[in-house]
Amino acid sequence: MGKDFVRCTYKELCTEDGVTILVTDYGDGNGTDFIMSSTAYSKLAQPDKTKQLISLGVVDIEYKRIFCNYPGYNLMIKIDKSSKFPDYLAIEFWYQAGLRDILTVGLSQIKNGEPMTQMKRNHGAVWDVLNPPNGALWVRFLVSSGRSAFQYIETVNAIPANWTAGALYDSGIQTS
After folding, report:
1. What is the Cα–Cα distance from 154 to 157, expressed in whole angstroms?
2. What is the pTM of this model?
3. Cα gap 19→40, rounded to integer Å
4. Is there a contact between 133 and 107 (Cβ–Cβ < 8 Å)?
């Protein structure tokens, strides 16, 4: 997803400093933009106003998306713990640099080959598919910078044929 700088607009309870958060999901309920951890939410408050801010629950904020930078890291593909080889594959992406959003994810046995098996966004940053293709899997992404510019990117390295739940694999690319 990306990183955002978030600042609470309640001057009497919040600092001007704000907090940088890693966004992993889109909020769909309660009219909220962000559902933050209690640790991040507490950092919005002035030191002696934390309990008061937390008691409000939902607050108005200002936010700005910022560039993610992970020096020395490619985009990594984590096989989610819910995956069951070979019938169900769920993946998430770690160290996604830049400002782009991953819009679609496809899998293929042969690099640049067809047909692509499309994954669906399950929840948060997790994408999944029932009955993934057998063998080493190349991953192809459609990414966007939030404007009308779309681009397909394909991994250099494949997810190995004998992938395992919990494993982390280097894609060999970055999305920025």
Report:
1. 9
2. 0.78
3. 7
4. yes
Judged by DSSP in three states, 120 sits in strand
* E strand or H helix at 128: strand 126-130
DSSP, collapsed to helix, strand or coil, labels residue 51 as helix
Q: Of how many residues is the chain composed?
A: 176
- Rounded to 5 degrees, what are φ and ψ at 153? -130, 140
Q: Could you give the residue range(s) of every CATH 2.60.40.760 domain in the chain?
A: 76-170
Surface-to-core class of residue 80, CB atoms within 10 Å of its CB (0-12 exposed, 13-18 middle, 19+ buried) = middle
State which fold the 76-170 domain adopts. Answer: Immunoglobulin-like (2.60.40)
**What pLDDT does residue 110 have?**
75
pLDDT in tens, 41-59: 899 999 899 999 999 988 8
Radius of gyration of the chain measured on its C-alpha atoms: 19
* 136 token code pair: 């080493």
